[in-house]
Design the sequence.
């Protein structure tokens, strides 16, 4: 972790015990709680964003979505690789 900030969070005693037991069974140390929480938060944020995008695009045809993806990929490739990417 590069730029870190300190969080104070409250969890149930059961959650604390479960997490510490889980980490200990895998040979992880106390400091690994932060890594575990950071990874869990990243996955949860990604999951929510994906759900929101799916809901927002529920009425859009697969063809339109694929066209938007293709357009975005072409733009990124052109930016990174120059005119040869086209």
Sequence:
């Amino acid at each position: 972790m590069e730029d870190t900030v300190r969080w104070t969070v409250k969890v149930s005693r059961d959650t604390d015990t479960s997490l510490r037991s889980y980490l200990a069974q895998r040979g992880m140390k106390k400091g690994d709680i932060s890594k575990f929480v950071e990874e869990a938060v990243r996955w949860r944020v990604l999951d929510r964003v994906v759900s929101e995008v799916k809901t927002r695009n529920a009425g859009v045809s697969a063809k339109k979505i694929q066209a938007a993806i293709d357009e975005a990929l072409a733009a990124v490739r052109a930016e990174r690789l120059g005119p040869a990417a086209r």
